[in-house]
Automatic annotation (TrEMBL):
Recorded topology in the membrane: Multi-pass membrane protein
Family matches, as Gene3D superfamilies: Regulator of K+ conductance, C-terminal domain
Predominant place of localization: membrane
Keyword tags: Membrane, Repeat, Transmembrane, Transmembrane helix, Transport
Classification via InterPro entries: Cit_transptr-like_dom, DASS-Related_Transporters, Na/sul_symport_CS, RCK_C, RCK_C_sf
Origin superkingdom: Bacteria
Residue intervals passing through the bilayer: 5-22, 28-49, 56-74, 94-118, 139-160, 172-194, 400-433, 445-464, 476-497, 503-522, 529-549, 569-589
Protein name as catalogued: SLC13 family permease
PANTHER family named among the record's database cross-references: BASIC AMINO ACID ANTIPORTER YFCC-RELATED (PTHR43652)
Residues covered by the RCK C-terminal domain: 205-290, 298-382
Amino acid sequence: MTFEIGFVLFVVVAMLICLIKEIARPDFIVFCALAVLLLTGILSPADALRGFSNEGMLTVALLFIVAGAVKQSGMLNHVVTKSMGTGKSPKMSLVQMMVPVSTLSAFLNNTPIVVMFTPVIRKWCKERNISPSKFLIPLSYATIFGGTLTLIGTSTNLVIHGFMLENGMSGFSMFQLAIVSLPAGLLGILYMITIGYKLLPERKTSEEAFDESSREYLSEALIEVDSPLIGRTIEEAGLRNLQGLYLIEVIRNGDRTAPVASFLKLKANDKLIFTGMLSTIVELQNIKGLRVETGTNLKLENLQNGSAALVEAVVSHQSTLIQQTAKESRFRSKYDAGIVAVHRNDERINSKVGEIKLKAGDTLLLLANKDFINRWSNTRDFYLLSQIEDPEIVSPKKSIIAIVTLVMMILLASFNILPMFKAALLAVITLLVTKTISFEGARKYIQFDILLLIACAIGIGIALEQTGAAALIANHFVQITKGAGVIGAIIVVYFLTTLFTEIITNNAAAVLMFPISLAIANQLSVDPMAFFVTIAIAASASFATPIGYQANLIVYGPGGYRFSDYLKIGIPLNILYMIVTVIIVYFVWIF
């Protein structure tokens, strides 16, 4: 082993450990790893930056814009809610939901689909007295089934496609992956309406859990008419830094102020609403001129009125809020919203809201202004699980243009009239020229953090290949699976890819496994397409944890799930997908 190989392997292992421990955002960790390889001379600037001009990565950027325009058309919600039917047979409704969602996910990004349909499905379940936890994991899994059907179904497929083009190969055709993923997806749906349905828990959603326990964490106090606090600001009154309580709303003459600014001056008869540990209520009782209201029946709906609304948000993998408290991130002033409660692992965190260190997957209950949802619907910090009241595209003409443009792009790429990149570029130009989407809107939909992660991960993949590290790892795998031959190598590649996907990210897993798989194929003298299809399926088929795939993370808190629920339901599905993939790949590309 040369020094270069050893150093690259050291950097990659260190990167994986940092990703698993979530010490920073994934894109920042991968960027730092690439920077180390560049600064130490392992990679030349040209090679380090090759990921930023990779065709697959650029196609992903263009598809974000196309998907954003289609999402805002508002036509998709109607399709899914209509297809779910009456709910008299929950299992039939499950099929009626999963099939159209999988179909949509084959052509649109998974994440916005899950974000869009989570509140729709919860509302549908609530109206029919069905537990949403029976439908939200299936919603996430349905997008994963669909994402593996086409070249554009998920960014991972396009990243592998871009790598193949860089290596002088033809890349995937539009529906090539469906040879494997269609039978696997159909079996997945069958599993979910039989074994999976029995394993799915019947739990309260985070929304219901927040509501039922509101008396345990909401309290109110009144400013007395002769109070020395009158005329003082919130800050001066000492109400901003209470030990266990967090001021979320002030009610004055029937008007509600939320979130509460530190410079707001108090008046007689102001009613103050606090959230936090009621065991620390003595803090309020010790403040002269502040009367704690006991025996009140304060409920969450009481906090809302014409100007204030309760919103649920799930902290994302890319969030700048991770490992920060609300106080440290200045949440209230940054987002103009107050955190009422935090839900994690099927339970509300019983401590002062402002001092909870947030994690990816935490569900936040926010009290915010009515325009909060529209202003922050595309933030990278959290996924909003409330329906946008004023979608950007309201004109039926623009909605039709968005859908027709998507269909034309798919047809152009499917019949090889244009390469996928050019078809996506033409689609974006069409949307901009017809003013279906604005330049500002287009920029809003591009997820730059994901693009940075992909581009940097490609640079690391190049380092693995150029230094010979990939060939060395491949040689070890070939030796280990010598007795099992090619089929053993496919199983190992699938297993490693799906393991990486569950503990880091799908794109990073695919990029790391590509050079290793290419080297294995060359050493075994077989068609490398077999391994690339295996990687594409394995990198997306993430069912066993809520942290491996964004779609799973989004429904984690809102569905009231526990980590063990994903293991119980997802591991059999992971095994099913692996068996189907290995058998079909072997007989189509190897045998």
